[in-house]
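[step 3/7] fold_predict: job queued, chain A
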Amino acid sequence: MEQIELMIDRLSNELINQQKSDGSWRFCFESGIMTDAYMLLLIKILGKKADVIEHMLINRIFSRQNTKGTWNSFPDEKGGNPSATVEACIALLYSNKLNDRRLEKAKKYLSESNQIDQANPLTRTILAIFGHYPWNHLTKLPIEFFLLPTWGPIHFFDFVGYARTHLAPIMLIQDRKFIISLPKHRQVAKWLPKSSTHKKFSQRIKEKIYPFIPHQYLSENVHQRASNWGEKFLLGRIEPDGTLYNYMSSTFLMIIALLALGYPKNHPVIEKAYIGLLSNYFCTLPNGGHVQEANSTVWDTGLTLHALLEAGVNPQHPTIQKGKSYLLLRQHTKFGDWALLHKSVMPGGWGFSDHNTINPDVDDTTVALRVLTSSFEEKQIQKSWNKAVIWLLSMQNRDGGWPAFEKDTGKPWQSFLPDLGSKVWGDPSMADLTGRTLEFLGNYTTYSQQQYVVNKGKNWLIQNQCDDGSWFGRWGVTYIYGTWAALTGLAAIGVKKDHPTIQKGIKWLCSIQQNDGGWGESCYSDQKMKYQKLSFSTPVQTAWALDALISFHDAPTVEINAGIRRLLQLLEQRGEEWKYPVGSGLAGEFYVYYHSYPFVWPLITLSRYYKKYKE
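[step 4/7] structure written:
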């Protein structure tokens, strides 16, 4: 126990010392090279002078190149990733690297096996914007789709918010077949292999979606009205920092869409967006500069405070008080798109990023609520807490589970869209969101007052357990993540260890424990839709698995003690296992190394182990 105590103190002190003056924690939300490539291209599009930033971004992109000369979306991905490699190459080629020998292997890779056409739809859209891919090879949703009424069988708001804010600018750009011709366009075009398959947009989309667009909508007047609607949609969702919905990639696309609509490069909206990206999303890393897809400040602040409170830091400690003040200032007061179909509910949730005011989510709301519960006796906190809980309960889907952002999106018709599926276009119930919401309701509220809500959530989890005993997690990697959230949620609402669902979940977790005592799962899992073993254990996934097991065992088991020993070793060593991406955004394409996670999740688990078993 002494070693555990020492590690709890060490991690707690490290976190306390990293708090910023405004009470927040600002860790890097580190992903692949996509956003770095987009930033390099944006600098060229807008004609900006940013030599130092460009140099740092180029350094990081090259540092992520693998030994085969290509780029991956996660460390153990075999071969190369077509999208990551295309994005890296086009950004570097337009950044005066046409003759750089480091790109020779990548050129050969892209020329083989039709890799350009294997890239994801967004990457191919970027190529089309720069004139390197035919627009008519891409799936197209007509902009008249914007105007379909929300009471109809299909409409634009069937897409979840983060999908809408990427789709809307793409639809506007594609409608005009807009092409940006940068200097060196001919040389870059000669370097890049040509698309060899003629991918006209899907006949299924014509058959399944076009019939819902009334014939009169396809007139010239309506077309212009749809374009105006799309422009207004974008401008109405710009956050105070100038970005679109606080996402780098959607902001990049918005800027291009505005240029397609005739905005000058120096328009105030474009200038503010560019400055917002550089000032709020750029972070300096040992291998160069990185533009984050989003900043995770609210999420990291809530998680860190929660971890410190679990570790026994007094709620009156100045660190906790400053952090709570920061969180209270970030509680939402505005109605966002989440309210369009749920007008009776008042705002009260929290979002992921520092400047987020209109896109709250369930995870950030529950983590903020856990922190505020420690000071519930304060009247201001009671008021904020009650508003947030009402909002949280209102977000439960009809099927009983919880989404991340918006209630009851994710419709069957979205399966006709290419490549990505309803888990991206919509926001269906997920085990990670449902489990953590139940964990909050069970451990931090008198949940008997919401027994019907809790029972629906419990039943959803039981019904959506995989045959092997695991659960799929959407926003982390993957089955360890989902199983941890589901088991800790079910434990919090009183489901007993001898319940068959719990027995299956525990058995599955123990069955995948590594020989070294830890747990490790590959990013391949969410592509294969089945657990894929990682060749090593990670501190975060080990902490998740242990937390789930601890929640059901009154005394430490052999598996728990072996896991704790390995977790302590990993926390001492801080090797490459520390950096493995365990956050997930888009299967096969976008994974996240949260710089906060190797601190907060092990701290939470060690603290719970210590409190439960110290006697």
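[step 5/7] annotate
Residues 382 and 551 are 28 Å apart (CA to CA).
The chain has a mean pLDDT of 94.
exit 0
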